[in-house]
Amino acid sequence: MKDFLCIMDCPVELLEELLQLSARLKSLYAEGGNESCLSGQTLAMLFEKPSLRTRISFQVAMTDLGGHVIYVKPEDIGGIGKREPVKDIARVLSRYVDGIMARTFEHSTVTELAYFAAVPVINALTDWAHPCQAMADVLTIQEHCQRIEGIKIAFIGDGNNVARSLAYASAKLGMKLTVASPAGYELDAETIEKVNEVSPHCTRQINDPQAAVIDADIIYTDTWVSMGQEDEKQKRRADFVGFQVNAELVKSAPADVKIMHCLPAYRGFEITDDVAESPGSIIFDQAENRLHFQRALLKKLLQK
């Protein structure tokens, strides 16, 4: 394993190993232990999109393992692929650091970085995929449901990068995903066809949120307006009326359903405050598990 760009690229055995390692390291650090396996190593963190969870969780994870990070904003290098080609950035950084984490708009940016870099590259989010988030979500589901196999997730909202990565995770790890979106915002047919070839009937797309949650173990939502879509804010908020995760929708689900959101949450839009703060909400456990999964990922990729 050189890079971590997309869940569909990873063998099931590797994903399971990463989940087991995440749980082991989480327990180790909770008990006051540590594992300085990346002492003397440096991770370059390239950001086109700002982030709270991604930056802090990767920085803490790398520090926990004894390594160092360099935070690179777009203006620090004149923009990724603007002042100089992505392939040149990849090859130069490979001479300086031991790994590259990138949070970008275009998925092609991280794939090009990985192609030309001599060091591991991690996709920390692109407009196409968010694999670290999805794997942290699986870790969270495992903790709260005591299993992964057969878990039913109802994703309510935009068929975006998070929905796509959850579909990939479902195909690889035996979960069932129903995506409920307004017309025009569905998860793309190519992704659904691809994941269902790997695991038949693991993912379906519908337009009815009530039907999606009726037998769900997990209700998951995300912002209706992602970074880069600010010009569409008013239209999107109008189009997504009826797709809010609120108390009325949750009533249609089993009593023990868990509520997930990858954050940031725009309360009063895709989710109401009372649902986000309800006893079934595991939103902040998700956020915490970004740290634990990424700590395991860094150990796996960078340990010599």
What would the keywords be for this entry?
Rossmann fold, 304 residues, alpha/beta, five-stranded parallel sheet, four-stranded parallel sheet, 12 helices
Short note summarizing the structure:
The protein has 304 residues and is an alpha/beta fold. The protein folds into two domains: 7-130 and 287-302, Rossmann fold (3-Layer(aba) Sandwich), CATH 3.40.50.1370; 133-282, Rossmann fold, CATH 3.40.50.1370.
What does this structure look like?
The chain is of the alpha/beta class. It has 2 domains: 7-130 and 287-302, Aspartate/ornithine carbamoyltransferase (Rossmann fold, 3-Layer(aba) Sandwich), CATH 3.40.50; 133-282, 3-Layer(aba) Sandwich (Rossmann fold), CATH 3.40.50. It has helices at residues 12-30, 53-64, 86-96, 107-116, 131-145, 161-173, 189-198, 209-213, 233-239, 247-251, 273-276, 283-302; strands at residues 42-47, 68-72, 99-103, 121-125, 152-156, 176-180, 203-206, 218-221, 258-261. It has a 5-stranded parallel β-sheet. Helix 1 (12-30) crosses helix 12 (283-302), helix 2 (53-64) packs across helix 12 (283-302) and helix 3 (86-96) packs across helix 4. The mean pLDDT is 96.
